[in-house]
Amino acid sequence: MKLNENTVLAKKVALVPYKPEHVPRYHEWMKSPFLQEMTASEPLTLEEEYEMQKSWNQDEDKLTFIITSLPSCDSRSLQNIPQKEIKDHNVMIGDANIFLNDQDQDKTFGEIEVMIAEPSYRRTGRGREALAIIMGYGNQGLEIVLAR
After folding, report:
1. What value, to the nearest 5°, has the Cα angle with vertex 31 and ends 114 and 88?
2. Per-residue b or e along 69-90, where b marks 16 or more CB atoms closer than 10 Å to that residue's CB
3. Phi, psi for residue 54 in degrees, rounded to 5
4. Among 104, 96, 105, which residue's Cα sits nearest to residue 136?
5. Residue 135's closest CA among 144, 126, 127?
6. What are the strands, taking DSSP E only, across 100-147?
7. What is the pTM of this model?
8. With 0-12 CB in 10 A as exposed, 13-18 as middle and 19+ as buried, what is 127?
9. 38-74 pLDDT, tens digit each
10. For residue 21, what are the contacts with CB-CB under 8 A and spacing of at least 6?
């Protein structure tokens, strides 16, 4: 979906568009039986994973971001950190998705999924922050109703 062409920054995480350079790491994550079970996913070959990334990027019913953990800002605000430093020091830790999946084609109805794939980043508030970002993105950008 073209709506997620930009990066969204928060305090602990950034949501970045899912691009081909993310596929190898994502593919490694999805070899985990635990993550396969938690996401109801089947293992894919690397080539299939690249095809999936491409199709998700073009699909109007999917909004997919990679979650990256931002460098510790200490006393600096993100606005004062050069973009290159942010890019060079962030860590890919998971993904966040919105799937518009209502059978009645109601585009205000969707499913949100957040996965923190890197175990050392779980239970650190990053998943909660990513969820808040993707909910806001869905509410404002897609006009999804957040609760029914």
Report:
1. 60
2. bbbeeeeeeeeebeeeebeeeb
3. -65, -45
4. 96
5. 144
6. 111-116
7. 0.82
8. buried
9. 999 999 999 999 999 999 888 888 889 999 998 765 4
10. none
